[in-house]
Amino acid sequence: MPAIEQEIRQDARIPPGYSVRELLASPLFAMSLTEAASRLIAIYHEAPRAVRYTSDLRRWLVAQAALAFYFERRTDASREDLTVTRLTEFAPLHQFASRNTIASYIAQMRQYKLFTERESQDKRLRPLAISEAAEHLIRNWFDSHMASLDRLDGESGLLFPRPTHGCFTIPIRPLPGHSSPIRAGTIRRKA
Description:
Shape: elongated
Oligomer: single chain
Structural class: mainly alpha
Order of helices and strands: HHHHHHHEEH
């Protein structure tokens, strides 16, 4: 295993898995990439306007920050709601877009029905929520990537069950012996 890969794995606390050389040599790798590309193209055909809109790097970064704030609040009620103001005050985005540009992007995402306004007891706040259509697209994107990993390691995908409503309403279970669900998505070599 190259030194850089060892360093990355150690820093990220990723359990041992396939090396780049092993992945490239696997006939399942090309098949997995081809299937992933087909699924992503299907997502594009399902919602071309939304996919095209978020394909711009700056818009994608703003959308990712918005999703992070949204899911942070959804998983921890003590966190602040996603609002345009909160997003425009998020300093790391200022490297890529001004406050006005960020606010404009969110307004456009609302126009494309990716975000909707939620009810609030405080009339000064206008919290945003991801629309059901956007959640559906996000879940399809997530499932396509998990299916690719499943193809590579032969797993059944039971670690990431599809909820009956919403994007990620069922908590992702960690692998046995791991405390973090993030590790559940890493590629594991069969014993």
